[in-house]
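User:
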Amino acid sequence: MAVNLSALQALKLAQLKSIAAKCGINSSGTKFILASRILSEIAVTSVPEAAKTASATAATAARSIAARPTGRKIYGRSGKAVRVLSIDMGIRNLAYCIFDIPPSSPPRKEHANPPAIPLLIAWKRVAISPRPSTPPPESTKETFEPHAYASLAYLLLMQTLLPYVPTLVLIERQRHRSAGSSAVQEWTMRVNMFEGMLYAVLRTLQAEGRWNGLVRGVMPGKVGAFWVGGLGKGTAKTAKWRNKTAKIDLLGGWLEAGGDGVLTVVTEEARQTAGAFLDRWKGKGKRRKVEPQPIVKAETDAVTNSGMEERLSKLDDLADCLLQGLAWVRWEENRLKILFGGVTALGETAI
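Assistant: Predicted structure:
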């Protein structure tokens, strides 16, 4: 049973919001708007074969997406694994992970394939602009000028991230304000600027034919709501802290259980980070150091390798980048379930 607008409109608004949350779709708007948005976005499944078995309405949208060259690059239905790069933005603390989604056969009518377990290849946290250990002289003072950040964005991608040859790049969308404040924090502006430069470099490389992948922005609120629910009661600050703690605990539990069927750590490089994460999570790793890893090779004075042996004391960035990537995998799986199995595929039935 393929999905259609009538089937979605037969559900209650709360059910539509639940489907949207499970698929990483914006849940705002009236019932008709939300049903239409769900129908439109689940068709953007990145699986060209989806058009063959979807309903007429969904199939039209699916074929439109599948016709684009990059649309065939997400799920490796041609026998190639999909490689995902997930980035949690930051200047002092930028975290990223690389994982593969093993290939699978095309979905059959009204059935989505069993979810593939992502294979974690790399998982790191780097300082794009490390904090100076001592007050620097005026001549070498840390700069946040756009030209310096443009160089850093290019070097980070070309020397550190793109050598992994990712198929899909997920970048955490940045907020514009903190905790509802009317003021815009200076660090927020810096991270927003760096985020935009990453998009610009990736788009340029696409246009020049030097990288053939796809880039998607991910709202962090959707990731948190998907894995640990809402922020709960209390002030914005305390709710945000509980959300961070819950995500760290969730990931720590998975790693402690050897992946728990959610992911598999397959390289020594990733195992070292996972081990350090677990030690710190259990309160044993306060003095454990991450293995030295170059951030980017210095081509200008603005790019340094300082801080390569920093202690693994900040877990939320590492947790966020990995949970972001894993959430995207689950969202895609849920979209496929609805696309091929109808609205009941996620347990929602008309009342």
